[in-house]
Amino acid sequence: MKMKYGKVVVAMVSMASVSAMGAGFGLYEASARGLGMGNGLVGSTGDASANYYNPANLTELSDPSVMVGMTLINPFCDVTVDGRRQPKMNAGWFPPPHAYIAAPVMEDLVLGLGTFCEYGLGTKYDGSWLLKMDTTETTIQQFTINPNIAYRITDDWSVALGARMSYLTFENYKTPFDIAPLGYIRTHLEGDDFNCGYELATSYKVTDDLSLGLVYRSRINHRVEGDLDAKKHGAAAALAPRNGDASAKLVLPSSLTMGANYEFTESFRSGVSLTWTEWSTINHIDFRLPRSYAGLDTSYTEDLNWRNAWRVGFGFEYDFTDYLAGRIGYTYDMDPANKNKGTTMLPSGDRHIIGFGASYKFLESWRVDLGYSFILMESETRMVHAGNAVTGYREHRFECDNSYSHLVSASVAYTF
Fold this sequence. Notes:
Layout (H helix, E strand, L loop, with lengths): L5 H8 L18 H5 L13 H4 L11 E17 L2 E7 L6 E8 L4 E8 L3 E5 L12 E16 L4 E23 L3 E23 L4 E8 L2 E14 L10 E9 L2 E9 L4 E10 L6 E5 L11 E4 L5 E11 L4 E10 L17 E12 L3 E12 L2 E9 L3 E24 L1
Antiparallel strand pairs: 1-2, 1-3, 1-21, 3-4, 4-6, 5-6, 6-7, 7-8, 8-9, 8-10, 9-12, 10-11, 11-14, 12-13, 13-16, 14-15, 16-17, 17-18, 18-19, 19-21, 20-21
């Protein structure tokens, strides 16, 4: 029996939470300031969130500093299967956190530590919808612990090296079989994995007003291991996979981000970032599952054929007073998925993201950042292969429209 649990893994490597609805499954909500700036903080960052945007920018800091915060993400969309409107997908709110420390130890040497989410997903459909055999609910969380070391080679040129320690968890519910009077099969799959990658970064100050940055993040190879629990009733029980261990191999993609920041005046700044992501690593997923109660081998390879994709964003920041600043940004995020190899775990379509934000400084050393983004996903159609051993497997036309996401973020920064 061909079971579709491999799609859980696809979603893992791609957490929009719905990635904060990043296309594919990337999460880019690393600070409230970055949310409002379209992530345009690669050439110059100016605070401890440089651990994420460009660790080489840690050398801009002369005093120890910290930042903590969280982004709340609420994705939803209308879905249609084979021309029939289904209940709206509304996964609720997801709260990926972020925290950073920057500690200068010498005049030209700075140590940093960041914790944030790079991937994630959350989708929830009505339990009786037409593709319940594909998924009904999926929650995936990924956390990165990121120690960095940055060194200023010259007054204008800095480099950095960092480790990316990735912990990934997932949980999935689906109903692969539900036919009266034969009975039903409902499954619950969960697992986790820990592995590491690295990053290389550099920044260069071309003039007093213009700074450039470049960040490379490596692939991370995950072998997700967990448990499969199947609830079964009636004659369908023989087709159900046995309860037991399950595993899958997947490769989180490498990426290359380049950016520039320019100061028009002391009060008016801009930033732009461009990211290429190697989503073609999500070519196929080899999934190992327990045999069914009838002895059938349920392990298989899921072909996905994702393509590499680009993400571009820019933003502007203006200081109204010495204490109050405002910002605005825009991001375009390409969807890497193959139209003929779709999954209901992730709403489809390219993303347009409009962000706003503000900062307030107080007590000399404190700063509060607030940000809001609205994500509009283009309407898209995917072909999803789903079914069961009795009725057979076939292609279903899965359409997403009126797809939106609200993101609200807050960060608090302190400089010692």
